[in-house]
Amino acid sequence: MSIPAGIRWTYAFVDRPLALRDPARAFWTAVTDTRLSEPRGGEGEFVTLLVEGADPCVKVQGVGTGMGGAHLDFSVDDVPAFVASALALGAETVAEHDGWAVLRSPAGQLFCAVPWHGEAVRPPVVDGSRLDQVSLDIGPGSYDAEVAFWSALLPDWASLRGALPEFHVLKPPPGLPIRILLQRLGEERPASAHLDLACADIDATTARHERLGASVVSHGRHWTVMRDPAGGVYCLTGRDPETGGLPSRS
């Protein structure tokens, strides 16, 4: 069954403290080889990272409280229909705006439904890496229900077990720029999200990001956890930047 709303594009949002928006914007434009749009919002808190010759798929938001994280925007043909579908599956409305809405998943992860404005051309790989994934970090008690929610909300996306038992991947149809990883945490805590970049060479990308002001937090099996100059955590992952899959599972 397909959602009547028709998901036409996806955006990954970099959410960082409003007081640190300038270093966040400088870092993420450098990482993605983009330029800033004109700021939007009452405090100039929203910017889009514009791409030469392609359509944008990353935005940066300055948040008034907390350290931020990440969230998804779904650009759809019919915002009310998408919202109705999400609510029927267990989401709740956080805020309604003129033509768009903020929602919360059953586990508490924020996401937005926004109108589609014709975006169609995916940004290219930049220096061997691509920001292509939002990881939803979910406590074990909510994880199975959250996987079921996102799989039902996105019926045209491939819902796949990850390479490790604590991961589940939602792979979008060809052409959509952002995929979703659900990660089961080892302890109960509020739902959060972070950004992942697919890297042909994690070590080379790590060195580049360090030159731009990021620092290494830790190393995992197929990934390196980083902290950007605005204090936000994200991951460099050993996946194919073109397909998003692990080298053996593209």
Please give a structural write-up.
The chain contains 4 helices and 16 strands. The chain is α+β, with helices and mostly antiparallel strands. A hairpin with a 7-residue loop joins strand 11 (167-171) and strand 12 (179-184). The model is unreliable at 1-5 (pLDDT under 50).
Summed up:
The chain has 250 residues and is of the alpha+beta class. It is built from four helices and 16 strands. An eight-stranded mixed sheet has the order 2-3-4-1-5-8-7-6, with helices on one face.
SS element count, helices: 4
Total number of beta strands: 16
- Helical percentage: 10-25%
How is the largest sheet built, in terms of strand order? 2-3-4-1-5-8-7-6
What is the quaternary state of this protein? Answer: single chain
- Average pLDDT value? 95
CA distance, first residue to last residue: 26 Å
Shape: globular
- Low-confidence parts lasting 5 or more residues at pLDDT below 50? 1-5
Strand content: 35-45%
Order of helices and strands: EHEEEEHEEEEHEEEEHEEE
Question: Biggest sheet, open or closed, and with what strands and sense?
Answer: 8 strands, mixed
Rg on CA atoms, Å:
17 Å
